[in-house]
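pls read this protein:
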Amino acid sequence: MNDLNLWFGLSYASWLTLPRVLMQDMSEEWQQKMADLLFEYDKTYQNMPNLGTRVQITKNNKLVKTPSELISYRRPDKTWVNSLKNQVN
C-alpha cells in the first residue's frame, strides 16, 4: 500500500478537500511543493470532464454555515489559524 492510501486510512473518502486559508498559512516551501504537485496533476489530466464540485460544511452530521474564518483567506484570523496548529513542545 502506498503512502497516499495510508493517509486516507480505512475511510471511504473519494475526495480530498483542504481549506485555502490553512494551506496559505503553511511554510513557503510547503506551498511551493503543493503548487508543483497541483500543476503536475493538472498537466497529467488535461482532458477532465467539465464538472464542478461543491463543499458542504457539516457539524455533528448537520449542514452549517461556513465559518467566516475559513472564507477569509485574504485577511486570515491568525489567532484562529494558530489555535488549530499542533503545539509541539
In short: The longest strand covers residues 58-59.
